[in-house]
Amino acid sequence: MNSPISPLSPVDLQNWSDHTRVPFSVYTDPDIYRLELERIFYGPFWQPVALVCEIPEIGDYKTFFIGETPLIVTHTGENEFHTMVNACSHRGVELTNEFLGKANDFTCPYHGWVFDNKGECHVTPGEERFRADFKKSDFGLTQLRTTVWSQVVWATFDPATPSMEEFLGDAAPALRNALGGGERPLKLLGYQKIVFNCNWKIYMDNDGYHAGLLHTAFRLLDFQGGQGIQISGGTGGHWGIDYGTKPYEDNGYLNDASVVETRNNELTATVNLIRPLCQSVKHLNSINFRFARPLGPGKTEVHYTYLGFVDDDDDIAEHRIRQSANLLGPSGFVSIEDSAVFERVQKAITAPHNTVNFVKGLAESPDGKRCMQNDEAGSTPWWNDYKQRMGL
Ligand code: FES
Ligand SMILES: [Fe+2]
Description:
Number of helices: 9
Number of domains: 2
Order of helices and strands: EHEEEEEEEEEEHHEHHHEEEEEEHHEEH
Oligomer: single chain
Mean pLDDT: 94
CATH superfamily of the largest domain: Naphthalene 1,2-dioxygenase Alpha Subunit, Chain A, domain 1
Bound molecules: FE2/S2 (inorganic) cluster, fe (ii) ion
């Protein structure tokens, strides 16, 4: 059989040495995916599970996932939140399948065990016939470490996960700015949810940095294109871009240019990638936080969570919704190319011996810690960390 002809030397998992050339199989191999769940999703990463504004009142809860594990996130007291595995400690039944709700306790639909919203077990019908050493207190729900940073509730399975400050490092300021500086209370405006037909790392490699390159709307509307600086930091290669924007000048392309107005002088924009699987973008008056989870090696579910501020008046709140719905999400004028390009990468990476190659920007920034917005160098601190963490 002829060997494949490639100007670059073939690279497979077995001889992967350069973290800037990622073998295709890293994105497709089911064994790699299982190892990622263990070492990354259930490893030392803080992962966003809710925004405070999604569960603003004591007693509110949200269900979400880290990796493939279903979770319940509860608001249990003044600035106090709990994250628990959404699986009954008796026989493993999912306790609730509501996305958002309010409850002081959860009753398992199978045998009626009852848990409070901190995960303690209080009712176990028929207990008199259970094994002699049975104690309810041994059967609380599995808890995750939980913290709140910049109005986001974060959780981790791993006791070794560092503090949020160390975890985010130099990527923290852009993320804080995306969320109104961290103090101005956010308000939930709504969701768009989409499943991309791609590996979760394809979504993270290809979204965020590419707006001025991929999105025709960015050029048609003369949005800012590529002048921001990607700053990478923390543990795991997060990055953020924080840049100013200019007010849109009506170039006649849109019938109603008011949809892309930047009101209230909010002329900053930020893009953030938080590892392993989260993005947050503020552009014009649209603020969104993108929770995500892997659905096996070939699919990724993303929740575009749209935000405003509690002190917004009705006009700006409506403007944020209209702008977000028109520009972003599955059918947004800006985002419409996203699912196409993610899926086209996924389709093509079944070939053996090939690599995804990160090249642009490495001339000036060999370590990828500081590069231009549309550069590929900014992804390489992540891949360096990933390769070591995965033992590949
Ligand atoms: S599985 Fe939940 S009470 Fe039995
Ligand atoms: Fe995009």
